[in-house]
Amino acid sequence: MPDGDTFGSLDARLAAEALIVDVEGFEGPLDVLLTLARTQKVDLRAISVLALARQYLAFVERAKTLRIELAADYLVMAAWLAFLKSRLLLPPDPEDDAPSGEDLAAHLAFQLERLQAMRDSAARLMARDQKGRDFFQRGITEDVSRVRRIKYTATLLDLLQGYARIRTKDEFRPYSMDREHVMTMEQALDRMRGLLAFGGEWADLSTYLPDGWDGSPSRRRSATASHFAAALELAKAGKLELRQGETFGKIEIRRAGSDGQ
Amino acid sequence: MDGEIRDTLFEAPPMAEQERMVEAILFATAEPVTVAELNARMPHGADAKKALAHLEKRYDGRGVAVVRVGDAWAIRTAPDLGFLMRKETVETRKLSRAAIETLAIIAYHQPVTRAEIEEIRGVGVSRGTVDQLIEMGWVRLGRRKMTPGRPVTFVVTEEFLDHFGLENARDLPGLKELRAAGLLENRPAPDAPTEDEDDNEQSDMFEEGQA
Amino acid sequence: MDGEIRDTLFEAPPMAEQERMVEAILFATAEPVTVAELNARMPHGADAKKALAHLEKRYDGRGVAVVRVGDAWAIRTAPDLGFLMRKETVETRKLSRAAIETLAIIAYHQPVTRAEIEEIRGVGVSRGTVDQLIEMGWVRLGRRKMTPGRPVTFVVTEEFLDHFGLENARDLPGLKELRAAGLLENRPAPDAPTEDEDDNEQSDMFEEGQA
């Protein structure tokens, strides 16, 4: 370890003087410490923390004499270094389980080394080839145009229902008109037993609702409820399969065993 | 070493190097670049025109091509790969009620004319509806009918049968079967009075209008 | 006939063709494109990763190069030809010393909290510094740290990698040496209050962050 007094005297004062001149240019107390450490002209790992503490305290003293106001964190660091200095100089107290002066000094050295490493890394990073300066991206770009294609589909059941709807117009009155606004599960069960013969593909349960029942909310509710109950009955009997993609999603049904078609 | 520096200072770089330069400039510049501009940007003594010719040949048959745009040059996507610059999203939608009904009539009554379809549906059939079915590949034109005006007829296609899992359009269930299946269940009560019918129909329409 | 259709539908185009496609897609955009996106844009069954490997080799030593950026790929001009692009040079905003150091700390220590950055620099980090880096697209928020207060963390972006020509964050210059020297450890001060339970988390998360 170099003689701490050397740094505590003339050199330290000269260094402190130089630092004071552009104290504005420093990025906090660690930055000052790092600059001071460089004056020791040794590897950061071999630094004399005691000497460094003295240098720093001299720097703060000098600022005080010159009535230069230092930011609070510079003064906090000064207080801590003064404490560290006393720790390093006094023999350790065996009663005290606080960290030793050597541990604290080692950590400060680590912090300085780490900050220096980051500075070196930053410099290396900025020295790399950079986009827009050393290498370049494509000048003429082509946007990907989005084309939306719509595919229409229909099931056999849709087709048959559609045809039935047309034929019904001429020959029959819609069934729903003869009833109250309530559809029983038995009625739904009767309908669905017949319809299922054409239900080989997954289809929304709502497509099974009869015409005339999808208009007013109360009729739709009744028809939906009865068809849902009927679907559960038929599923229980193994006649159809039910599925629902997500909570509150569409309920889809198809004839049981349609997979193997 | 010294000699090398002098070479690069006073002699044009080798043609392979010039080709690399043209490649980089054409790649990075936002507009097509003229030969004059290439020469101005390249080291003294370079021959951009020659380098361009080499580069053009090198990109022959590649995914991008060196192309002439007016009196300037650029790198562009090969014409046959333009499809890669389009992103297609397919959205599945249910066929409209009008289209389904029209399709059903064609399937059940083929070959059928537009006038016949309209008669069965009891409402006009828009050109677009039939066109859509044709475009989907489910309907095609059949033979002209041997009636006055020789109107065109429509028939369903193989693809239609395929989609609906039918061997033949004749396999479609008849009215009796539809009724048995419950699709034509809307049979009136035999004793229902006829004026009731009108009443109910009205209230039904009223309700539908509210939905 | 049927068999032929199936072939064109389900067989990927030959590798040379796939290479052309990757070439066209990469040439058409300034941003890096992920392998997944390439595959999505190419015909069914194509292997973009393999095609990329071929393409990368093809452009070796040319005026432009196929480069990897994170899990994406891009074409960039060869760095030795930068002098030709004076016209294209983008004036980047001059970064302050604080911003450059903060950027390096985020890159080497990511994911890193503001408190950790301040601990390393020994001085407060102004909001504006991090904001500037985020605005430039070089830094973004990472996952919150699982320590008291769940502080936000900062990580570098793909744009950062692209800008500095890095394949991924593990390629940062000197990263291995710094780690071996223990300089990337989050070593608590001996006199710090003892609630630092996340000694090792840092380096672990670093690896994960890049996946």
Layout of helices and strands, plus pairs?
The complex is a heterotrimer, with 1 copy of chain A (261 residues) and 2 copies of chain B (211 residues).
Chain A: H1 4-8, H2 10-21, H3 29-39, H4 49-65, H5 72-89, H6 101-126, E1 145-153, H7 156-171, H8 185-195, E2 203-204, H9 217-236, E3 240-244, E4 251-255
Antiparallel strand pairs in A: 2-4, 3-4
Chain B: H1 2-10, H2 15-28, E1 33-34, H3 35-41, H4 48-58, E2 64-69, E3 72-77, E4 86-94, H5 97-109, E5 112-113, H6 114-121, H7 127-135, E6 139-141, E7 153-156, H8 158-164, H9 175-180, H10 194-210
Antiparallel strand pairs in B: 1-3, 2-3, 5-7, 6-7
Describe the structure.
- The complex is a heterotrimer, with 1 copy of chain A (261 residues) and 2 copies of chain B (211 residues).
- By secondary structure, chain A is mainly alpha-helical.
- Chain A is 52% helix and 8% strand.
- Chain A is built from 9 helices and 4 strands, in the order ααααααβααβαββ.
- In chain A, a hairpin with a 6-residue loop joins β3 and β4.
- Chain A is elongated, with a radius of gyration of 43 Å.
- The N terminus of chain A is likely disordered.
- Chain B has 211 residues and is of the alpha+beta class.
- Chain B is 48% helix and 15% strand.
- Chain B has 10 helices and 7 strands.
- In chain B, the strands form 2 sheets. A 3-stranded antiparallel beta sheet of chain B has the order 1-3-2. In chain B, strands 5-7-6 form a 3-stranded antiparallel beta sheet.
- Chain B starts with a helix and ends with a helix.
- At the A-B interface, β1, α7, α8 and α9 of A face α2, β3, β4, α5 and α9 of B.
- β1 of chain A pairs parallel with β4 of chain B.
Kindly list the characteristics that best describe this protein.
heterotrimer; A: 261 residues; mainly alpha; three-stranded antiparallel sheet; 9 helices; B: 211 residues; alpha+beta; 10 helices; 48% helix; disordered N terminus; disordered C terminus
